[in-house]
Amino acid sequence: MRDTAPDLILTGGPVLTMDPARPRAEALAVRAGTIAAVGGRAEVLALRGPRTEVVDLAGRALLPGFVEAHGHPTMMALAVAPPAVDVRPFTVPAGADVSALIRAAVAAAPGEPVCAYGIDPLLQRDLPVPTRRALDALCPDAPLVVVSNSGHAAWANTAALRAAGITRDTPDPAGARFLRDADGEPTGEAHEGGAVEALLWVVAGDRVRPERLAASLDWAYAEHARVGITTAADMSTEPSFVPALRAAAARPGAALRVRSYLIGTPELAADSGRRFPGHAPAEDLFGVSGVKLWAEGTAFQGTIATSFPFLDSAATRGMEAIRCAHAPMNYTPEQLAELVAAFTAQGYPMACHVHGDVTFEAVLDAYAKAGADDPGRLRALRPRMEHCGAVTPDQYRRAAGLGATVSLFMDHIRWWGDVLADDLFGAEVTDRWMAVRSAWDAGHRVSLHNDGVCSPTDPLSSVATALTRRTPASGRVHGTAEVLTLGEALRAVTTNPAWQLHLDDEIGMLRPGMRADLAVLARDPYTVPPALLPDEAAVTATYLGGRPTWTE
Hints:
Number of helices: 20
Strand content: 15-25%
Strand order of the largest sheet: 6-13-14-15-16-17-18-19
C-alpha cells in the first residue's frame, strides 16, 4: 500500500495562508513538494506517519514564500557577489570610503580591469560624480568603470572607452546614449541599457566565466532565500545568460525559482521567427516570462519624462533634466509602440520600466495600440508597468481598464523619500510618489519589489514602507493618503506577484495542491508595529517546494 503520509508538518504558530477561503490556520502538511493539507493542529497532525518530520513553529508565523516581482538576481551575481567592489550607499554610506575602496581595488589588481558598482551621490553626499579625467588619475593604464546604484548610468576612464571601442563616431545604441563634450568626444558617461552594458563588458573579466558565474548565482539565490523569497523575476536577462540560469536551476539544492524577462532590443523584436516559449510550471525552477523595455531612465539621473519640472537645487543642477520641464524618453512614442506591437505579436508578455507620468501615458498608448484588434488577448498577457513613481490616479484607472498590471518600487520612499522631497521634486510630488493606494483602489493586483541591487532585497521592508511611507533615517513621513493595510501589503509580495508571473494557480498562497513555498517569520506580523516589521518579524526559515533553503 502506498504511503500517503506527509513528509513534513509545520504547526505551533499562526499560518497566514493568503487564501480568502481560509485566511488563518494552525498547521500545514507537505508531501512531495506540494501542500497536502491546511487546517487545525489536531486534524493535520492526525495525518502524520512514522517518517513525517514535525516542525514546531514555537509561536512563529508561517506565510507563503515571498515573490520578488521585479528583481535582478543575475545582476546581483555579476555586480555585488563577493569579491565585487560593492559601493552602494547601503554598504558604504560615506563618499570618502567609496573613493578609498575603488583606489584599493585598482591597487590590488594592477593592469586588470576594475568595476565598482553602486555609487549614489544623492545619498553619498560627499562623493563627487566621476569624470573621465578623475578616473584616469585613479587608473591610468587599465579599464575602470563605475556604475550608478540605479544601473542607469556608468562612468568610464579612457582605457575603458578604448577597450570598448567607443569613439566620437560610435553611434548611440537604441534607447541609450554615450554623453559627449562640446567637440563631440565621449565624456566617459553612459546612460541606459545598451550604452552602460557596452562599458560593463570590458570590465566583466572572469565574472562571466561559467564556474565563477555559477558560484555567484548560487550566492545571489541564497541572498533571496535569506529574506524568505522563493520566486524572483530576473528583470532584464541578457539572452546569452539563459543557459547559466537553466544550469543554476538544475543544481541540487537550488534556492530560488527564477522567471526571466529578456532584454527587449530592436534586434530581438525584429526576429519574426522567435515566439514566446510558454509559461513554465512552478516545478521548473527556471523559465522565461516575457520581455522588458526601459521606456525611460531614473529620477536620480534626471532622466524621466514628467509633466512637472525638477526643482532647481544643488542636486539637480548637474542633471540634464533641470534644463527643461522633463527629460526625453529612451524611445519616441512611435518607436515604443512598434516594439510593444512586435513583442506582443510574438506572444511575449511585456514589462516596461517607467516612472514619469508622461512616459506612463506613452506606454499605455502603446499597449492600447497593440491590443486594439484583440483586447482580450492583450489582457491575457498581463502586460506590466514597472516602478511607477509619478503615476496619477487617472492613469492607474486607464491602465486597469486596458488589463495592464503594476509593480511599485515602494522602498524609493524608505531610502530616497527625503531626497525626492528636498532635492528633486518637492513635498507635493513626493507625497504621491509610488501612489500605491491609488493603484490598489483603481483595481490593480499591485505587487511591491526591491529592484535587486538598487535597494536591499527584503520584501518585509517593502511591506513596512507601504504601511508607513516613512524614511527611517529622518523619521519623516511622505504621503499618508497612499498607504496600504497589512493584509494588502502581504498580498502584494505573495499572491499578486504570483499572478503577474502567471503562476497564481501554483504559488503565492497556502492551499492544498499548491507548491509548498514557505516563509517562517519570527513573529505574527499582525502583532508587530509596522515600522519594525523587517527587524521584529524577520524571516527565520525558508522552504522551496517543501525543501529548506535557509534557516536562521
